[in-house]
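Q: Could you write out the predicted structure for this multi-component system? I'm mainly interested in how the pieces pack against one another.
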Amino acid sequence: MLLVCVLACGHAVTPAASPVSVILAGPTVLADSLHVAATDPFGAALAQRLAPGATVRIVSDRGALDLIDSGGDALVTDWPAVIRYAASRAEFAVIALPWHRQYAFISRHAPPISNVVDAVHGDARPATSRCPLDSVPQPPATVVFYFANDSIARSLAERLVGLGVAQRAVANRYDRVAMESYIQAWPIDSSRCDIGSLHAVPLVETRPHLIVRRGSVGVVADTAGGVKLETTP
Amino acid sequence: MSFRARLFVAFGLIALVPLIGLAIGVRREMDLRLTAQYRSRVAALTAVTRTDLAQTSAAVGDRLASLRDALPDDAHLRTALREASERAYLLDYAGQAMRMTGLDMLQVQDEHGRILSSGQFRNEYDRLDPALPRLLAGGAALVNARTPDGPRLVLARMDSARIGDRRITLVGGIAVDSAFLGRLRTDSTLTVSLALPGDSAPDDIVADIPFPFVSNDSLATARFVISHPSTELDALRHSVDRWFAAAVALAAIAATLGAVALAARIGQPLAALAAETERLDLDRLDANFTTDRDDEIGTLSRVLGALVRRLRSSTVRLREAERRATVGDLSRQVTHDIKNGLAPLRHVLRHFDQVAREDPGALAPVFAERRATLDASVVYLDALARNYALLTPRAEPQRIDVNAIARSVVVPDGIILELALDPAMPQITADPVGMRRIIENIASNAVNAMGNGGTLTITTTPGGQLTIEDTGRGMTQEQLARAFEGPGLGLSIVRRLVTDLAATLTVDTAPGRGTRVAVTFHT
């Protein structure tokens, strides 16, 4: 399921038209000559779409900082500390990418949930889609699971605990199928309200940032608002 | 109970009872002293634990105070409190401050009790919890702080600061976990645990320290429980018990050995005395009880020696009396036997005298007729003399014609002798003198019983039975018994001789009815 989601997320931001404006001036380079990285699988898929043919590595938050310090060309991340650090460095440009990911609470019930945006580090906004909610209060879920490597999912799960929607937030690494209450991330245009017998409550939408070393590669925008690195395969 | 067993019991009582008493007393005293020391130590450790808790509480207060002092100087925080765009800073503030101050819980509330920032649970912001600072206003308390993973027990305090026109409340604390309790454990033999209301306390509590506990928006009382597994004290008690058990066992063994040794020391001379005494007999009075011991056993030996000497003297006198009695009996028996042997001679000589006076010419035929009687009497007397010469008559068994001996019986005048001798009477294997003494004694008694007149009937049968019956005065049972009792008397002799031949003697008598004596021989 995760793999499908990753591929779909990448497809959501693929530039679909010819560039109409230059976001960041720079040369056009061979894709495989760029050092491109991302801090999570979502970002990796997106980076792959931004620079087709480039080799994209997934790095940790600390690895992302090291990449900035050691000559990396492009980085896709949603981690605020990394974004702030890159913004503080004059040789890097930080470009906000379109909203592309939605996080939802999946459970047997669909309680009304609000005031969760501040729980997320980085750019986040309330979910733009809506799903049917429970008309009567339901008992909190015993546990809400989240994917262990997804910091946004963890923040949202903890916020649900803070709101009393669930009693505990527990990281899960392997088996999401057997869970009855969990945080799900998917592309905005793939959001749903029902997954089998479970219901989805959309929570927030997020967007990553593209960090580009100035002068290493150009960044252009097309007519659809898509972003692309100026590379040749 | 044997002498040895009594000695063992006595030794056991003497050795073991005082030892067991000593063991119980020492153990009790040791128990009291150890318990007193133990309680003193527990009291000291409890005081230390109280101090540690107070110091921990003070440390939390100090850290909160430093935060309280730093809050008004943080311009970014002032901005975050007013501008929603800086809310992320506000939400992350408690977490960073908590890590910097080394606290495990930090909650920042506004004047309404709304959580502005939470260090241990960033995303519980906006939750209302006004009761917590109010309950902590009186001092430190245990709090179940909320975290995403579940409640976390902390020792918390509160403080407050004023930023502009806003009053900010700080609630901070240190986690009360196993590490915290381990730090309170200042003695390796004690265990410090926490008992919340409703928890079951361990059994081996030696002290407890009550501590406020915030539960369901109210104050309750929890307890820091100091318990002692008692293993050290128990081990000491068990060790002492083992040593005393070993001492009792050794004492028991020593008592046993002592009893055995003493019993042997006392018992062996007694056993020797018993063995020497057991050898004593009227024929063996040579036992030696001489001793040089000067104790009770020596006295007993000397008493026994004197007793043996007196017994020896008495035995000599007794034997002399017995010898004299035996000689008297023998004399009477000899007299009786000789008289029996002389009676036929006397009768024959009277017969000769009568023939010599009345018919001298028939003397020779009569002599020839009665010579056999004379010869038989002489042979009888001769054998009698030879037997007595040997003191103990020697039996010379041979085949005897009982009828022939019966025919030699002579009766005095006035007595009629009737012989009913069956030629089929079998010969009997016996001493001829003894057989003759049997018949002569029975016949003599019968003649005596008949006085001046009567009939003596001698009968033999093919079955080996000899019967001598008289018409005399007969005897009562008492008279019959006496006739058998007196040594040297006729029937007494007869019974002994008949018994020697393994024959059977039967006497049928009654006063006025005569006596019938039957001897049944085994052929």
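A: Regarding packing and overall arrangement: The CA atoms of residues 38 and 76 of chain A lie 5 Å apart.
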